[in-house]
Automatic annotation (TrEMBL):
Assigned keywords, A-Z: Chaperone, Mitochondrion, Transit peptide
Pfam families: GrpE (PF01025)
Record's function text: Essential component of the PAM complex, a complex required for the translocation of transit peptide-containing proteins from the inner membrane into the mitochondrial matrix in an ATP-dependent manner. Seems to control the nucleotide-dependent binding of mitochondrial HSP70 to substrate proteins.
UniProt similarity note: Belongs to the GrpE family.
Entry's localization field: Mitochondrion matrix
GO biological process per UniProt: protein folding; protein import into mitochondrial matrix
Name the record gives this protein: GrpE protein homolog
Organism this protein belongs to: Paralvinella palmiformis
GO molecular function: adenyl-nucleotide exchange factor activity; protein homodimerization activity; protein-folding chaperone binding; unfolded protein binding
Region (Disordered): 52-79
Major localization class: mitochondrion
GO cellular component term of the entry, any: PAM complex, Tim23 associated import motor
Length: 238
């Protein structure tokens, strides 16, 4: 019995010792776990903080790089606006020059057409002036022979008729080419565009001053241009 009692006591002591040992082991293990968890939390906190810091530094480093493209874009936009203004002004200047050139070309074309028409109408002006002297001579010849003398001489009458027919034919040719006579009547208003005053005649009753008194030499007009004004005398004022 005594031995059994001792053996049971020893077993109880051993049990308590084992329980203490297990408890100590559990406490040590829990301490290690706690330490590892805290270390892991601290490591996670430090790594997160470091990552945030690094990302912040990177963002700070990237901010100037992001600002640089914005500044470059603004500069490019300014350059584009300046180039656009230059091109717009250049286009406006070219359009103005183009319109002026068109207007000048149109004016030149109209002047050339006018010159061509004038050349067609008045190209024979010099030739007509030379023929006017011939017409004047024929006119003086037909007006210088008295009618009673022509009746006495058949040959002179035939010559007179020939000169008259020649003068009539010459006047028809003149009319065909646009050359007409300027032969004002007595009392017609003096026109400086088609008349040339050679002298002043005394005013008579019933005639206005400044009107044609006598025609000394008939004039001629080629179409609308006065080729030679009529030489006339004008009544003067009292």
């Amino acid at each position: 019995c005594t031995d059994l009692h001792i053996h049971s006591v020893n077993m109880a002591v051993v049990g308590r010792m084992c329980s203490r040992l297990v408890r100590n082991l559990l406490l040590a293990r829990s301490g290690l776990v706690k330490n590892s968890v805290s270390q892991r939390c601290q490591w996670h906190f430090l790594s997160t903080t470091a990552a945030k810091t690094e990302s912040g530094q990177k963002s700070e480093e990237k901010t100037p790089q992001e600002d640089k493209p914005a500044e470059a874009g603004t500069q490019a936009e300014d350059v584009f606006k300046e180039e656009r203004e230059k091109l717009t002004s250049s286009i406006a200047e070219l359009q103005d020059k183009y319109k002026r050139a068109l207007a000048e070309t149109e004016n030149v074309r109209q002047r050339l057409n006018k010159q061509i028409e004038d050349a067609k109408l008045f190209g024979i002006q010099g030739f007509c002036k030379d023929l006017l002297e011939v017409a004047d001579i024929l006119n003086r010849a037909t007006n210088s022979v008295p009618e009673e003398v022509m009746n006495e001489s058949p040959h002179l009458k035939s010559l007179f008729e020939g000169l008259t027919m020649t003068e009539s034919q010459l006047q028809r040719v003149f009319t065909r080419y646009g050359l007409t006579q300027i032969s004002p009547e007595e009392g017609e208003v003096f026109d400086p565009n088609i008349h040339e005053a050679l002298f002043q005649a005394p005013q008579i009753e019933g005639r206005e001053p400044g009107t044609v008194a006598k025609v000394t030499k008939i004039g001629y007009r080629l179409h609308s241009r006065t080729l030679r004004p009529a030489l006339v005398g004008v009544y003067k004022e009292c």
